[in-house]
Amino acid sequence: MDEALNKLAAYLGDRLGTKLLASQVTLGELTIEVERDAIPHVIQLLRDDQLCRFGSLIDICGVDYPEREERFDVVYHLLSPWLNHRIRVRARTDAAHPVPSIVGVFPAANWFEREAYDLYGILFEGHPDLRRLLTDYGFQGHPLRKDFPLTGFVELRYDDELKRVVYEPVKLMQDYRSFDFLSPWEGMDSAIPGDEKAGEARDKDREP
User: N or C end: fewer C-beta atoms under 10 angstroms in the chain?
Assistant: First the structure.
């Protein structure tokens, strides 16, 4: 398998030239890194070339590296059912520079690109309807960025007087909690209901 993928990597190097920045075969899968603006050309080549035939788009996702100037990797996973090969295509970008959409090559990329925009803030140029997909209307920020707070910015509850859901700033009721592995929120000191006999047995074991 690795030999076939290495041959495919060499073939793609010849076809893509300077558009191909790096390639690597690991755990039976080929990963290539390409220029951001070359993404539609690369994906179409992988789909249509008879030595590639990657006719199935499995996923598009983002990866966040906050320490980098181009902090995001956009990662495309494709499958060739005919050749039984998988390939991973990576391209770098940041929050200001959009990645060309591949909806025209794979219509299934529509929701994948919307998801990456929603969760990471990655922009896709030429997308027909780039809007949030998983978070609520008016959501602030992008929750899979590594600098996004774990608590988020707002919390919601149902207001019985207003008869609707309202958003409020997040309030942590206590800064520190005592975790006793029984009830981490309340810190139970008493026995769990139904476990009284176990407590009595422990007390007898401690008797001299």
Answer: C
